[in-house]
Amino acid sequence: MELNNIKLTNFKNYSTLVVDFDDKLNVITGLNGVGKTNLLDAIYYICSCKSYFQASDKSIITFEQGFFNITANFKKKAEDYNLFCKYSPRRKKEFECNRNIYDTLAEHIGKFPVSIITPDDIQIVKAGSEFRRKLVNHTLSQISAEYLSNLMKYNKILQQRNAYLKQISGIENMTNFSLLDTYDAQLVNFSKPIYKLRKNMMPECTQFLQNCYEQISNGREKVNIQYISNLNNNNFEELLKTNRQKDRILKRTTVGIHKDDWEFGINNHSIKKIGSQGQQKSFLIALKLAFFQFVKEKLNIEPILLLDDIFDKLDATRIAELLKIVTANSYGQVFITDADSKRLPAILDSLNLQYKHFIIENEKILLTET
Description:
By secondary structure, this protein is α/β, with parallel strands linked by helices. The protein contains 11 helices and 15 strands. It has helices at residues 36-48, 123-126, 129-143, 145-168, 178-217, 236-242, 244-250, 271-274, 277-299, 316-326, 343-350; strands at residues 2-11, 14-20, 25-29, 68-76, 79-88, 91-97, 100-101, 114-117, 223-228, 261-266, 269-270, 304-308, 334-338, 356-361, 364-367. The strands form 3 sheets. It has a 6-stranded antiparallel β-sheet, covered by helices on one side. Strands 8-12-13-3-14-15 form a 6-stranded mixed β-sheet, with helices on both faces. The two termini are 21 Å apart.
């Protein structure tokens, strides 16, 4: 799968921008704040129907403008696809593929898979479980429309159950739990296929992770992922009933797949607790690349790979090793940003790798010789 070109209108700092890309490797350089990350986010957006960095679509619109558009042309398995997205606060967001408007945005997810690695992604290793669930959900939603559908339904029922728990939290001697029974039955039903996919993906991803980590770090440490879930050794329906009083007091559902977590290990220890900064960063990159390989294997297509300013604090040797990995045949089209306009080209030239080099200045892109 290849992104041939993209056109932006009123997307963040770009009032208008048109770029034609290399089918393999694209290097985007420029000073901090010129819009390198914004360009990658536009690519992520057209693939995923949302920004990787902004929760609100309204905040994406160029200042004092009333809308934004993205047009992109892809080639996938020898077929051409024209994608178009338009958004304004006064209208419903629309996505088109070859002039056909999707009824729901969920229909688009997974058709043009994408993976991104950013400096802030270190929170996946170091911070709370919500960051790890977001990564797993994004990964599995791209390979399974059923997973995405069940997850959306589960979250909707969860919100309804939590709202009801707040209503009944102060009611003493409550005996009618019929509505909770209904919510619980639906949560149990939607959770089963979600739990199954999450559990089944771990052995395969762990093997990919070990291979990627060894390549990046040149180390012999053993790394692994452990899936932690209330459902591992418990009946979910019984758990919900057992915790009803606790849930009423706390006004929220305290058990379920929305509490799932993944523990990352290195040599049988928590990398979150004992890993150095270098080990944690190498683990993060290896993890993202492992999930990339997982999606590729399930869909039989290489996702777009976006690497946003991840080479900071890495030495030239480690950067070269990472570039060798992502430019190998097992990866497809890659986009890399860097604030240093000379570092990556010098390393890529030493490796005899072909690429397009874009330099962003004053919201304009200059294409250097490749």
